[in-house]
């Protein structure tokens, strides 16, 4: 998320933020990359001293899918509890 704009009005607020999502997948033996550019247009309210999201609208700006060639094989991450994020985010084994 980036370029976040927030307008406050007492215990209510509105915000807009730009979102970029990039995903990779394999299709028929080819490495594909999907990119989506969108905006979140949100309404917020303050309840019992805490801000909470009331409504979110995702506005799609652009999307694409294309074949890619990776520069190198990356390591150091896993999709399980051995991932380094578990060490710092306090997840219990």
Task: Compose a concise summary of this entry.
Strands 1-2-3-4 form a four-stranded antiparallel beta sheet, with no helix packed on it. It is built from one helix and four strands. It is flat, with a radius of gyration of 19 Å.
Characteristics:
93 residues, mainly beta, Nuclear Transport Factor 2, Chain: A, four-stranded antiparallel sheet, 1 helix, 65% strand, flat
Question: Mind explaining what this structure looks like?
Answer:
The chain has 93 residues and is mainly β. It has a single domain (2-88), classed as Nuclear Transport Factor 2, Chain: A (Roll), CATH 3.10.450. It has one helix spanning 85-88; strands spanning 2-9, 12-27, 30-47, 50-67. A hairpin with a 2-residue loop joins strand 1 and strand 2 (12-27). The chain is flat, with a radius of gyration of 19 Å. The mean pLDDT is 92.
Secondary-structure topology with pairs:
Blueprint: E1 2-9, E2 12-27, E3 30-47, E4 50-67, H1 85-88
Antiparallel strand pairs: 1-2, 2-3, 3-4
How many individual helices?
A: 1
| The first-level CATH class name | Alpha Beta
Topology order in helix (H) and strand (E) letters:
EEEEH
Mean pLDDT: 92
Overall SS class: mainly beta
Strand order of the largest sheet: 1-2-3-4
Shape: flat
């Amino acid at each position: 998320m980036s370029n976040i704009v927030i307008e406050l009005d007492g215990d209510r607020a509105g915000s807009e933020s730009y979102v970029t999502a990039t995903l990779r997948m394999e299709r028929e033996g080819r490495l594909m990359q999907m990119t989506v550019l969108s905006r979140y247009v949100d309404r917020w309210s303050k309840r019992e001293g805490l801000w909470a999201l009331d409504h979110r609208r995702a506005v799609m700006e652009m999307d694409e899918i294309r074949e890619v060639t990776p520069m190198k094989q990356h390591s150091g991450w896993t999709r399980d509890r051995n991932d380094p994020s578990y060490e710092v985010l306090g997840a219990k084994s």
